[in-house]
Every structure is written in C-alpha cells, then in structure tokens.
Predict the structure.
Amino acid sequence: MELTEARQKFIEAWGKLGSEWGINRTMAQVHALLLITPEALTTEEVMEQLSISRGNANMTLRDLINWGLVEKQLKQGERKEYFYADKDTWHIARQVAKERRKRELDPIIKILDELSAVKGSEKDPEYKTFHKSVTDINKLAKNVDKTLETMLKADESWFWKSILKVFK
C-alpha cells in the first residue's frame, strides 16, 4: 500500500471511529489529516485535501480549537492562518476525555444528584426501584468521573501501570 492510499485509509477510519464516539465525522477527518501532516495547513489546504466546503472547514477547525486538539498558527509575512494538531496521543486522549466529561458526564451527574434527593417511602415499590436505580447509576457515574480525573492528572506511564495492575 502506498503512503497516499494509507493516509486516505487512516483519515476515513479516524472519521468513522470519531462518529461512533459521538464526534462529527468531518471533525474527526480534519483532525486525522492534521494529525498525520507534519506541517500546519491552511483552511484552503484542508478543504482541498478533504473535498469539503469553506464553511464546513472553518466551523470544524474552530470546533477542534475549542476541543484543544488543534492550534492556530500565524506565519510571519503571511495573512493566512495555519492549523496544527498536537501529535502527542496521550495529550489527545486527555483532551478528548476532558471535553467529553464536561459535555456529557458533568451534566448527567448533576441530574442524577437531583434525582437521588427525591423523597419517598421505602415501602413504595415504585419509589424503592426508582431510588435504587438512580443511586446505582449515580455511583457508577461518579466512579467513572473519579477515574477520568485520575487520568487527566496522571502521567501516562503511571496511569497504564495502574490500569494493568487491575487486570493482573
């Protein structure tokens, strides 16, 4: 397989994987392109290489910047903006976990905390079932949150050593 074909296959696979994780396919494909490109690219280069519109490229690059996965760079003497993706996979994983936590886990924990406080009679089977389910889900969500917090603060080698100990 030639490099050009391999690059295209990676971009397509990263896009599919991203969409399965709840991230826009184009956003994942732009990230993949920037991830495997050694130099920063302009919006026009992203548009051309992925065959996407200017509006889609601009919106996607802005989202990637907001996620902390891409940075905007200016080159002296040029008016164009350039975009560069962090190549450190541990940093990428931490950034994605941080954003997903903020967007998904934090709001559900807030709701589960409210629902856990609902009062009722332990003699009422509907209340008892509701309370147990909500409390159990809340406990799981908070354990996931603690694990993410540990990951976000941890050094990569320490984190993986700790995870491997659990499976031994």
